[in-house]
């Protein structure tokens, strides 16, 4: 009966905190709500042993919470998550709706549900006399690149934990520990030609034809595979000419490509850009954005210890996995800090009907606690 009451109380606290967090319209264009939300989270730690600090870079706020007596920039374990979400056209998206074990709302899965797990775990440690050396970094710009949040904290401020757990790995039905994510390169490809009447195309030079040839050449170099495997992908997300009528051979054309690549194709996005430029003729190619690969050796002692703790907490083996999209984990990896990702179960992130499983929030917290206990035991 005591365990049932404890579980019911935890569920009630989880729903209450999640409702508070989802209520903030913390989109990229609303830094005021991002700051208010981080201030609310910081207020949860008043009269505890935790230290909280909200900093700002280029107008983007971040919150660092620390427990333990050590250097707050060098904790033994750092938990990491983001408070910003993508926009929604639904008027009810920023109000929590609970149906059974599912909680619906913008950011429920990406990643305010995960934040609840991280916050509740840190809050638990902040109330005990001898907590582990743990920190929690919550940023406000992961969805727009993370340069003013996590990247700034790691590469400029000097945040250097021993081990990082990012709670931003969306799980659909089963748990995996993400140890690598693909690199990314967003390309703008433009071509030029010669205008002519659409009925006499031989008198012109069709820039759209040249563009499609350039795209085909890029895809052949990348060796695109459109399936859920650790291989390269290439999405043509924008493609157009500058014509306003249908009977003109276009003299200009433009496309934007989203390329995701593995270490077998290139070590860095800059290396891949050089290869594409050397391979593709008759097109101007510009990098709009670059994303570095995130990789952590699975044989690293902390990674193995985390896997053991996750499997013990879950009651089943938790395998290693990979991610297709990018996250702030790459900034820790760039600094040589071993990093893993694990997150809540849910679906429809970045879409209407986004939901998170409430029980998975509790499980993520349990996994993190089990790992911290293992680290503490290993030091004795």
Written account of the structure:
The chain has 380 residues and is an alpha+beta fold. The chain folds into 2 domains: 2-181 and 293-379, Aminopeptidase (3-Layer(aba) Sandwich); 183-291, 2-Layer Sandwich (Alpha-Beta Plaits), CATH 3.30.70.360. Helices cover 34% and strands 26% of the residues. It has helices at residues 2-22, 31-43, 108-125, 150-157, 207-222, 269-279, 301-314, 329-334, 358-379, and strands spanning 51-57, 60-67, 77-82, 97-99, 102-104, 134-139, 163-166, 177-181, 183-192, 196-197, 233-241, 248-249, 252-261, 284-291, 294-295, 320-323, 339-341, 346-347, 355-357. The strands form 5 sheets. It has a 6-stranded mixed β-sheet. A 4-stranded antiparallel β-sheet has the order 4-5-19-18. Strand 4 (97-99) and strand 5 (102-104) form a beta hairpin. The chain is elongated, with a radius of gyration of 23 Å. The relative contact order is 0.17. The model has no long low-confidence stretch (mean pLDDT 93).
């Amino acid at each position: 009966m005591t365990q049932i009451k404890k579980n019911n109380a935890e569920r009630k606290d989880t729903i209450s905190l999640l409702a508070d967090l989802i209520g903030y319209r913390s989109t990229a264009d609303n830094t005021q709500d991002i700051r208010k939300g981080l201030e609310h989270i910081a207020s949860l730690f008043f009269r505890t042993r935790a230290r909280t600090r909200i900093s700002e870079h280029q107008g983007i706020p971040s919150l660092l919470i620390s427990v333990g007596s050590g250097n707050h920039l060098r904790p033994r374990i750092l938990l990491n998550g983001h408070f910003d979400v993508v926009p929604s056209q639904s008027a009810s998206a920023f109000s929590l709706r609970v149906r059974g074990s599912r909680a619906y709302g913008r950011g429920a899965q990406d990643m305010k549900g995960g934040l609840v797990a991280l916050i509740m775990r840190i809050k638990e440690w902040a109330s005990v006399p001898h907590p582990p050396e743990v920190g929690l970094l919550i940023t406000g710009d992961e969805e727009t690149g993370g340069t003013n949040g996590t990247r700034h904290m790691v590469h400029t401020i000097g945040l250097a934990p021993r081990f990082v757990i990012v709670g931003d790995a969306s799980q659909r039905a089963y748990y995996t520990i993400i140890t690598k994510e693909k690199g990314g390169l967003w390309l703008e490809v433009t071509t030029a030609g010669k205008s002519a009447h659409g009925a006499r195309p031989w008198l012109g030079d069709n820039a759209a034809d040249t563009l499609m040839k350039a795209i085909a050449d890029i895809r052949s170099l990348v060796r695109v595979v459109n399936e859920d495997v650790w291989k390269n992908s290439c999405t043509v997300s924008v493609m157009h000419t500058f014509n306003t009528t249908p009977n003109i051979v276009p003299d200009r054309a433009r496309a934007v490509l989203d390329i995701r690549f593995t270490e077998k194709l290139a070590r860095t996005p800059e290396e891949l850009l050089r290869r594409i430029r050397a391979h593709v003729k008759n097109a101007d190619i510009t990098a709009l954005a670059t994303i570095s690969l995130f990789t952590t050796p699975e044989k690293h002692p902390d990674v193995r210890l985390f896997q053991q703790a996750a499997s013990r907490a879950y009651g089943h083996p938790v395998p290693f996995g990979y991610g297709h999209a990018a996250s702030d984990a790459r900034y820790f990896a760039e600094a040589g800090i071993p990093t893993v990702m694990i997150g809540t179960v849910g679906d429809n992130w970045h879409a209407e009907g986004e939901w998170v499983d409430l029980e998975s929030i509790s499980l993520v917290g349990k996994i993190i606690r089990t790992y911290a206990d293992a680290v503490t035991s290993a030091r004795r």
